[in-house]
Write a structure and sequence with these properties.
- With 234 residues, the protein is an alpha/beta fold.
- The chain has 2 domains: 159 residues, Rossmann fold (3-Layer(aba) Sandwich); 61 residues.
- It contains 11 helices and 8 strands.
- It starts with a helix and ends in a 6-residue tail after the last helix.
Amino acid sequence: MSADLGRLLGGVGAVLLDFDGPVCSIFAGYPAPQVAAELVDVLRRHGVDVPPDLASEPDPLEVLRRAGAAGDDYVTRAVEDALCAAERRAVETAEPTPYGREVIGAARQAGMSVAVVSNNSAGSVTAYLAAHRLAEYVSPIIGRAYADPDRMKPSPEPILQAISAIGQPASRCVLIGDSLSDIEAARAAGVPVIGFANRPHKGEAFWAAGADAVIVSMNTLAHVLLDGLPNAGR
């Protein structure tokens, strides 16, 4: 696996990190199902007839997607605002992913740019990185487009924004993500992708979706960056 990663990363000039997963668990102290329930309450307060499947939806991003699909821009903005506020609270108790910090440091030490490309709000990502003294190492931060959930991953748009800002061709970037939407977005953007299988069931699905490599710990990636790629990005 390390040899495969070494070959994959050998020509890379920029590492693009998904946020919730590779960098931290944003909802570790403020559970995602609680946030989703609060967003459902926002829908109800705006007169939306919430079907049972949406009422029990545990993923706040899916609640936002459903709100956007309904086509009421005012309601979508209300859900977006509530989610942004919840994410800013959530980062105060977010749990850093083991070796996520080391990956950022190792990539920079190898001469690579490091960006975050997230379906979470840019404000919450920025707040987390500042609180954990990582902000100076990560740029750009591409977060969720405001009240426009169709532009979230698996859309390739946020990844394309990141590689444009970095100034690297897609083939010299690599995305590390922990969801199928990350894999799909990277494939659509023409960017190599490493699946972070932080749950046992994810690895097989990542391979099937076209991941170029799969890791189960960010430590694996940090070691390859530190030990196997001297001056890789230079």
